[in-house]
Design brief:
The chain is of the alpha/beta class. It has helices at about 5-15, 70-80, 90-105, 115-130, 155-160, 170-175, 185-195, 220-230, 250-255, 280-285, 305-315, 320-340, 370, 375-390, 410-430; strands at about 35-40, 45, 50-55, 110-115, 135-140, 175-180, 200-205, 235-240, 260-265, 275-280, 350, 355-360, 390, 400.
C-alpha cells in the first residue's frame, strides 16, 4: 500500500528539486523515500501516517530540549501575537545578545542573521577586511554552509551525494580557499610557513560534525591558535552545531581556547531560523554601519526567532543538563558498541559530550579520508532496519546523532533492542 508520505513525496518531486528543500533530508543515500513529519513531541516524531519514531536527528541539532518544548512554544505564540516581523530593532535582540555573551564572554559584540551559511560567509568577509588578506584555510570534510568560498572538500550533504564540490562555483572564488586534512598539524604548519602572509583566517569546526563526529586530536586546536597568533591571521570557530550543545560556552569553553570570531546557529534559534557571528569588538566593528564590511538581512534578529532563542538559553541555564546529556550518550553508545563486539561486526564510535557517530570500519576515524572508509551499504541496511523499528537516525553516515534532554531511559533501551534485532537478522542472513 502507498503511504501518505509516499504520495506527498511523489507530488513534491514535481515542484521541489529532489522533493526536498535540503539535500540531507533525502533518503538517496539509504534508499526509499523520506517520511513527512506531522508533529514532534519530546523525543519523538510522528509522521503524517501516524507512525511514531524515537528521534536522534532532532532537526539536525537545534532541539536539545526536545520537540515542542513548552516554554519555547509559549514564548513564540506570545511573540507572534505582537507581530512576526518589524524591520526595526527589538528588545529581544539585545536580551539574546546579553545571554550569549554571558555564556561566551569572548564574544564582545555579535551580529544576528538567519542561517549558519550567512554567519560563516560574514566571518570570512570580516577576516579579509580585518587583515587585508584574501586566503581562507579550512579543513577537508568540514562544512561551513553553502556559500561559494567554502564549497571545497566540504562534508555533510556533499559527502553523502558523492560530490567533491559544487557545480556553479567559479574557480576564481575557490582559488582563495585552501582545504587541508583535519587533525593534521604538519600540513597546517607547512601551509602557514609557505603562505602565512596571505592567509586571512583559519576556519574550523572545533569538533567536526559534518563528516560524522570527529573530535580534535590533543593539541590540534591549541596549535591552530598559536599559528594564527604568529602569522597575524584570525581563528574562526564554526560552532553552528557545537555552540550551547557540548557546554554552555560551546567548544571554546570546553577546550579553553579563545577564537577571534565564532559562528553560531541551530540551538541559538530554539528551532527557528537564527544564527550569529560574534567575537572581538574591533573586528566586529568593521561591519556596517560602523565599518566598510556590508552585511544585511530583512529577517535578521526576527522577533519570533529571538524569542525562541531567549527561551532556549534560559532552558539551558542549569549546568546539570550537560552532564545528563553526556551520561545518556555514554550509556547508549557503550551498549551499541558492546552489541557489535558480540556479533563481531566492525564498528568505531566517535563521541564527545552529547555528539556521536557510528562508523562501520575497523580503522580509527580522525579525518575525512577515514570517515569515507565506512561501509555505507551496511549503513543503509542499518538505517532502514532502525526506521522500521521506529528509530529515526540521520539518513547519512556523514551526520551526527543528537541526544536531547527529552530522551528517556526507555528510549535508549528501545534503541538498543532495535540495534540488536538488526544484528541478529544481519548475521542470520549470512551477510
Amino acid at each position: 500500500m502507498t503511504t501518505e508520505s509516499e504520495r506527498y513525496y511523489k507530488k513534491s518531486l514535481d515542484l521541489i528539486p529532489g522533493g526536498v528543500n535540503s539535500p540531507v533530508r533525502s533518503f538517496s543515500a539509504v534508499g526509499g523515500s523520506p517520511f513527512f513529519a506531522a508533529r514532534g513531541e519530546g523525543s519523538h516524531l510522528i509522521d503524517i501516517d501516524g507512525r511514531n519514531y524515537i528521534d536522534y536527528v532532532m532537526s539536525w541539532g537545534p532541539l536539545i530540549l526536545g520537540h515542542s518544548f513548552k516554554p519555547i512554544v509559549e514564548i513564540i505564540v506570545k511573540a507572534a501575537h505582537r507581530g512576526t516581523s518589524f524591520g526595526a530593532p527589538t528588545k529581544n535582540e539585545l536580551e539574546l545578545a546579553l545571554l550569549v555573551r554571558e555564556r561566551m564572554p569572548w564574544i564582545e559584540k555579535l551580529r544576528l542573521m538567519s542561517s549558519g551559511t550567512e554567519a560563516c560567509m560574514t566571518a570570512a568577509r570580516l577576516a579579509r577586511a580585518a587583515t587585508g588578506r584574501n586566503i581562507i584555510v579550512k579543513f577537508d570534510g568540514c562544512y561551513h554552509g553553502h556559500s561559494d568560498t567554502f564549497l571545497v572538500q566540504a562534508g555533510s550533504g556533499l559527502a553523502t551525494g558523492g560530490l567533491p564540490a559544487s557545480s556553479g562555483v567559479p574557480e576564481a572564488v575557490t582559488a582563495n580557499t585552501i582545504s587541508l586534512p583535519y587533525n593534521n598539524l604538519e600540513t597546517v604548519d607547512a601551509c602557514m610557513k609557505s603562505g602565512g602572509r596571505n592567509i586571512a583566517a583559519i576556519i574550523v569546526e572545533p569538533i567536526a560534525a559534518n563528516m560524522g563526529v570527529v573530535p580534535p586530536v590533543p593539541g590540534f586546536l591549541q596549535k591552530l591558535r598559536e599559528l594564527c597568533n604568529f602569522h597575524g591571521c584570525l581563528l574562526i570557530f564554526d560552532e553552528v552545531i557545537t555552540g550551547f550543545r557540548i557546554a554552555p560556552g560551546g567548544a571554546a569553553q570546553l577546550f579553553k581556547i579563545k577564537p577571534d570570531l565564532v559562528c553560531l546557529g541551530k540551538i541559538l534559534g530554539g528551532g527557528l531560523p537564527l544564527a550569529a557571528v560574534g567575537g572581538d569588538a574591533g573586528i566586529m566593528e568593521q561591519l556596517a554601519p560602523l565599518g566598510p564590511v556590508y552585511q544585511a538581512g530583512t529577517l535578521s534578529g526576527n522577533p519570533l526567532s529571538t524569542a525562541a532563542g531567549i527561551a532556549m538559553l534560559q532552558g539551558l541555564a542549569d549546568a546539570h543538563i550537560y552532564s545528563q546529556l553526556k551520561q545518556y550518550t555514554i550509556a547508549l553508545t557503550t551498549q551499541i558498541a558492546e552489541l557489535f563486539a558480540v556479533y563481531e561486526i566492525p564498528l568505531r564510535i566517535n563521541m564527545i559530550e552529547s555528539l556521536f557517530s557510528l562508523f562501520f570500519t575497523t580503522e580509527e576515524v580522525v579525518d575525512y579520508s577515514g570517515a569515507r572508509k565506512t561501509d555505507m551499504a551496511f549503513f543503509a541496511k542499518f538505517f532502514q532496519k532502525l526506521l522500521s523499528e521506529g528509530i529515526f537516525v540521520p539518513p547519512s553516515g556523514y551526520e551526527a546523532w543528537f541526544v536531547s534532554t527529552a530522551h528517556t531511559h526507555e528510549d535508549l533501551a528501545s534503541t538498543v533492542r532495535a540495534v540488536e534485532r538488526f544484528l541478529i537478522e544481519f548475521k542470520s542472513e549470512g551477510k
